[in-house]
Amino acid sequence: MSLLRRGQHWGTFARIWHIFDATWQDPYESAPLIKKYLMGLYKPIYHPLNDCGDHVIVINSKQIALRGDEWERRVYFHHTGYCGGASWTLAWELHNKDPTMIVKKAVYRSMPGNLQRRYTMERLHIFPDDNIPSDMLENVSNQIKQLRRVPVKLQDIPQEEIEKVPKLIKYPIDYQLK
After folding, report:
1. Using one digit for the tens of pLDDT, what is the confidence trace for 40-95?
2. Residue 15 in contact with residue 55, Cβ under 8 Å?
């Protein structure tokens, strides 16, 4: 095998580390995108029985956004295994307890329910903020593009840029805005 071919072979089977910023992203829309990288669906060697997926780091899971009133309507079920051990938890309660759990459950739900799902989920690393251990951060070589743009707050826009916007109404000098 030539040296070039060996490099291509290694590059195909190597596990790559990706990073995804979950700020203002819907976890149930982002889950299929994250699943694609976790399972290795984008690789030319993908096969359902082949374990060729990559590592994905999800940051800022504390700042996810659910649509409409999903914070109050979405319910997560858990059962302890004992009689009367069923419990239902609202999304906002679960997010207050563990900010990483909603993203984890969304990705887990989007994967096919086979025996590899549990082992594939071990390559998903979720952090509630952008504090990542340095040994993980040095492995990252790709950033996954966000599905939804993060809106800019008015207080973050510099004053010079605000003054450049053309004014539609010119108020008199003695006019008082209320």
Report:
1. 999 888 888 888 899 999 999 999 999 999 999 999 999 999 999 999 999 999 99
2. yes
Supply 166's token pair: 């053309």
Question: By the 8 A CB rule, do 66 and 26 touch?
Answer: yes
DSSP secondary structure letters along 11-55: HHHSPPEEEEE-TT--HHHHHHHHHHHHHTTTSTT--TT-----E
Residue with tokens 């251990």: 133
pTM for this predicted structure: 0.84
Q: Hey, what are 172's tokens?
A: 């008199």
Phi, then psi, of 17 in degrees rounded to 5:
-105, 125
Contact in structure between 16 and 123 (CB atoms under 8 Å): no
Per the structure block, which two tokens stand in for 135? 């040994």
Distance, in Å, from the CA atom of 20 to the CA atom of 33, rounded to the nearest integer, reads: 10
Question: Which residues are bridge partners to 111 per DSSP?
Answer: none
Calpha distance 92→74 (Å, rounded)? 9
Q: What are phi and psi of 148, to 5 degrees?
A: -120, 135
CA atoms within 13 A on the CB side of 138: 3
Contacts of 60 (CB under 8 A, 6+ apart): 21, 22, 23, 127, 128, 129, 130
